[in-house]
Amino acid sequence: MLRIEQLSLALPYYPRFWRRRYATHLDQLSFSVAAGSVHAVVGASGAGKSLLAHTIMGLLPKGAQLGGSCFFKETPLDEPRKRALRGRELALIPQSLSALDPLARSQHQVNWAARRAGLAPASARQTVCQALAHYQLDERARRAYPHELSGGMARRVLTAMAHVTQASLVIADEPTVGLDPAQRGRVLDALAALTRQGKAVMLISHDLRHALNIADRVTVMHEGRCVETADASAFQGTGQTLKSAYARALWQALPDNAFTIDTEYARESHFA
Ligand SMILES: Nc1ncnc2c1ncn2[C@@H]1O[C@H](COP(=O)(O)OP(=O)(O)OP(=O)(O)O)[C@@H](O)[C@H]1O
């Protein structure tokens, strides 16, 4: 569904206001997301996960320098194609709740997403009602403006918006942050259900444990680089089948696994 080859990204910054420099944020990333699968992208805060999502969606700031290539359904995903597919074939559940329009009620925003995706009014109405019910957004939440929603409710509105687009690839950037366990399960189940319809999900998370609940494959990122891509089944026991020491350390550092940490990570380089 999605193939990324040697993707690099540099963004401008200004050490003095007349002097422009570039900082590399993504460095030669390569991996593929298969149709009918959940591909988790995990890594510490600042690893470049959200920037990767924004790069695929074509939502980068002005002056961004891109290298490498992206293919969606075996066709190059250039900037005009990203714009054309965004909100239709490609959907993003953004990490930031400020992505919601502060002047529009929840139901209106979900409805807008369905109409933009090309659904006819009658079918949009039905799809929106189903999505709002699925994410347990009651009458009050549907009529609320973003500032009247709790963080968890706002996140569910954003998830419902991506859900109604019926996109082939859904990129979910930390979709469960701030949700209670029941709501978290509901969102993860909904993402997993998309794969049963042949869609692909790229699940971005700093929480490897949550990601492993539904992931088929996992890419571990560190400082803008792809450290390792492995089957989710590699994350078990001491993680001895993982190739990189960083991925192994990330797995072993989970609270339930902490007792297995050894000194190997300290001895090896991060990218061993
Ligand atoms: N618009 C931007 N302009 C310049 N630098 C940016 C921009 N967005 C992000 N960065 C920088 O890129 C790096 C990666 O940020 P990114 O948000 O992708 O990390 P992340 O892995 O998603 O982290 P988190 O899990 O905390 O969301 C950070 O150093 C950040 O400061």
Automatic annotation (TrEMBL):
Subcellular location: Cell inner membrane
Record-linked InterPro entries: AAA+_ATPase, ABC_Ni/Peptide_Import, ABC_transporter-like_ATP-bd, P-loop_NTPase
A Gene Ontology cellular-component term: plasma membrane
Alphabetized SMART domains for the sequence: AAA (SM00382)
Family: Belongs to the ABC transporter superfamily.
Pfam family, one: ABC_tran
Residue ranges of every copy of the ABC transporter domain listed in the record: 2-248
Keywords of this entry: ATP-binding, Cell inner membrane, Cell membrane, Membrane, Nucleotide-binding, Translocase, Transport
Gene Ontology molecular function terms on file: ATP binding; ATP hydrolysis activity
Lineage, top ranks: Bacteria, Pseudomonadati, Pseudomonadota, Gammaproteobacteria, Oceanospirillales
Membrane topology category: Peripheral membrane protein
Superkingdom of origin: Bacteria
UniProt name for this protein: ABC transporter ATP-binding protein
Residue intervals passing through the bilayer: none
